[in-house]
Amino acid sequence: MQKIQFQLPVDEFPTKWYNIIPDLPEPLPPPKEPEDGHSRMEYLAKTMVGECLKQEMSTDRWVPIPEEIRERYIQAGRPRPLYRAVRLEKKLGLKKVRLYYKREDLSPTGSHKVNTALAQAYYAAKEGNTTLVTETGAGQWGSALSYAAKLFDLDCVVFWVKSVYDWKTDRRTLMNLFGAKVYASPSKETKTGKEILAKDPNSPGSLGIAVSEGLEYADTHDGCVYCLGSVLNHVLMHQSIIGLEAIKQFEIAEDSPDLIVGCLGGGSNFGGIALPFVGEVLNKKRECEFLASQSEAAPNLAKGEYKYDFGDVGEHTPLLKMYTLGHKKDMVPIKADGLRYHAAAPLISLLRHHNIVKAVTYPADEKAIFQAATMFLQSEGWLIAPESSYAVRAGIDEALKAEKAGKERVICMNISGHGFLDLTAYKEKMGLP
User: Do the beta carbons of residue 107 and residue 88 sit within 8 Å?
Assistant: First the structure.
């Protein structure tokens, strides 16, 4: 029987996170204060988890994972398997190309977001906080932090982009079951939200708005601390366990990827799978390419400008150097709303600037995306999140290109989440009754 699943033994699960900062081709541009107004650095120090901010600019290549976090990682199903997509290969008629996918959808809440949620919740509890506050786009991060908060006996408040809050009622129920309070963003709970609603009562919201609301709420309520689900260095470092596992699993498979593909909004799942491999490329240990798959609704990495910008609409964050569309950019809602963010993570932006990471975009109508996801479901059997479908679409397209050119290729796609709470989107996009 052909081996298609490659599982890492629990006792080989990583004991350290990988931090790519020491291996970058140039120093990461530091955060900057804007010319006007209060200190954003001091603001973050007041509102965010102290240990996470220490990790943010750490120059240590390897950061030990506390035992309490490792225990909860394992409880949450780590290590997670790597699969060879043999049925998808057959469906596509591939002879030269081998397809693999990493299964981050197998977490308790259905996505990779649990990897940093558990870490941030642990450090927040250790520092004496009682409530975690955050934003969420597709709902995966809000679900993950709600879950992690409960595992560390904390409360959780989530500001959810309104356009998604309105249709993903089952995922909202999941957050509520974990005990979280969930508000549609923009909301009437913050000054930022009230100002936006005054200008546009029907605002669909955005991740940038929700980030502003989360930061403001944490700043104005006792015992609260803000946790971010993507973009920042410490988040991508926590997610590095995805790629670290995959490196060992490819060794078990006696194979090696020459292309890593992931969807990208802010950059957490793409960074998680890619950065450990990028580190080996930078250290001349392997050859591999990296492709981020994006929506035309928010092509930050593909079409943004590499410059300093705020991470949120309310301008609460320091200025970060990243590929950005502009922090006040209006972006049309899409079903893969986790990808609808104005800027890409500074780490990934720097790698894009050096042409180590490349990007591709797909139309905002998402027809090609859901067709790829349906093909994946009907061949491999797994219902994946709309965001993950971007990785599969790009993986399929790259495989067909290589096959047509007669080029042997090994492609690894990161499946960032499952789609069981996205069936309404599948029904709409695939024209089902």
Answer: no
- pLDDT of 7 > 90? The answer is yes
Question: What span, in angstroms and rounded, lies between the C-alpha atoms of 38 and 312?
Answer: 15
Give, for 36, the enclosing helix (H) or strand (E). Answer: none
Domain span at 423: 5-13+65-110+233-429
Closest listed residue to residue 421, CA positions, set 110, 103, 149: 110
Residue 43's closest CA among 229, 236, 314? 314
Q: What is the pLDDT of residue 207?
A: 83
Query: The domain that contains 347 carries what CATH number?
Result: 3.40.50.1100
Please give the structure tokens belonging to residue 298: 């928010």
Sign of CA dihedral 191, 193, 196, 202: negative
The conformation of residue 311, written as its DSSP 8-state character, comes to S
CA–CA gap between residue 376 and residue 258 (Å, rounded): 21
How crowded is residue 33: how many other Cβ atoms within 10 Å of its Cβ? Answer: 13
Q: What is the pLDDT of residues 9-44, one digit of tens each?
A: 999 999 999 999 999 999 999 999 999 888 999 999
What's the distance, Cα to Cα, between the start and end of the chain in Å?
39
Entry pTM:
0.95
Q: How far apart are CA 188 and CA 271, in angstroms?
A: 34
Q: What pLDDT digit, counting tens, does each position of 135-191 carry?
A: 998 899 999 999 999 999 999 999 999 989 998 899 999 999 999 999 999 999 999
Q: Which helix (H) or strand (E) holds 353?
A: helix 346-353
| Residue 30: count of CB within 10 angstroms of its CB | 11
Distances in Å between the alpha carbon of 209 and those of 167, 181, 342?
Answer: 19, 18, 11
| Residue 1 pLDDT | 80
Is the C-alpha dihedral spanning 198, 202, 208, 210 positive or negative? positive
- Counted domains in the chain: 1
The two tokens of residue 358 are 């490349």
Is 315 within a domain? Answer: yes
Q: Which two tokens stand for residue 227?
A: 């946790």
